[in-house]
Amino acid sequence: MENITVFFYFNLTMFENIGQYRYAAFVFCLLLYSFIVSANLVLILVISRERMLHEPMYIFIAFLSVNALYGSSGFFPRFLMDLLSDTHLISHPACFFQIYVIYSYGSCELTILGVMAYDRYVAVCHPLHYHTKMTPKTVMKLGAFAWIWPAVILTAVISLSATLPFCGREIKKVYCANWNVAKLSCVTTVVNNIVGMLLTIMTVFLPLLYVLYTYLRIVFVCLKSSVEIRQKVFQSCLPHIVSFVIYSITGFCDIALSRYNVEHLNPFVAIILSLEFVVIPPILNPLLYGLKLPEIRRHILRTLCLTKTHKVTHR
Fold first, then answer.
1. Buried b vs exposed e over 64-73: b needs ≥16 C-beta within 10 Å?
2. Model's pTM, two decimal places?
3. Among 77, 78, 239, 267, fewest CB within 10 Å belongs to which?
4. What angle (nearest 5°) sits at the alpha carbon of residue 249, between those of residues 115 and 273?
C-alpha cells in the first residue's frame, strides 16, 4: 500500500494574494458587512412592524433579508479574521460547516426567488383568485419549503464529501467550497460528482427554469393588458427580476471559478469573483426592494423620520 499523508487542516491559499492590502481590505469588508447587517435589519423590522406590509410579497422580501443575514454572518466573521491572520488554516469540521452555511444560503436564495416568482405569477395571471390562493397558511408552507428543501439537499451532499479521505490541503479560494474540497480526495469522487450533479439540478436549475417560465407567462399577460396595468406589473416585478439576474450571474461566476484553474487568472480578479456570490446579493437586495417599491420606501422614510424626531425631543 502506498504511503499517504492525511491532512487534518485545509489551507485557504488565495489570501496570500492580498498581501500588504489586507488592512485596507479588512476595513472595507468590515464596512460592507456592517452595511449588509444594518440595511437588512431595517428592512426586516419595517416589514414586521407595519401591518400594511404583512402581505405575501413583502413577507418573502423579509425572507430574503433573513437569508442575507444568515449567509453573510456565516462568511464575514471568519473572512475578516483570516484577513488579519498570518496563517489561513481551517479544520475539516469548520470547513464543512462553512460550506453548509454558504451553500444553503445560496440554495435558499434561489428557492425564495422561485417562491416570489410564483407569488407574482398568481398576482398577475390570476388576480381574482390571489387572496384565496396566497393565504397565510400557503405563505407559511412556501416559506417552510424554501428553507427546509435546500437544508435537506445540502446535508446529503456535504455528508458525502465529509466522509472522503483527503491527501491535499490547499484550497485556492478565500472560503471553503465543496468542489474545491472534493478535488483534494485520495480516492475517486465519481459517486460524489453524480449525486452532486443530480442534486444541483434539483436545487438550482429547476428553480431557475420555473422562474423563467413564470415570467414568460407574466409577459404574455402584460402584452394583452393596458398600459397602466403594465406599469404596475413592471414596478412590482422589476426588483425581483434584477435580483434574480444578479444572483444568477454571481452564482454562475462562483461555479465557474470552482471548476476553473484560478492560477490562470489575475489574483485580484480571482478574489473578486470569489467574493461576489456572498457579497453582492446581500448588499443589493435591500437597496432594490427598499428604494424601488414605494410601500417599503415610504415606511422606511417614516420610520427614520420618527427616530430622528424622537432623538431631537429627548435632547
1. bbbbbbbbbb
2. 0.86
3. 77
4. 130
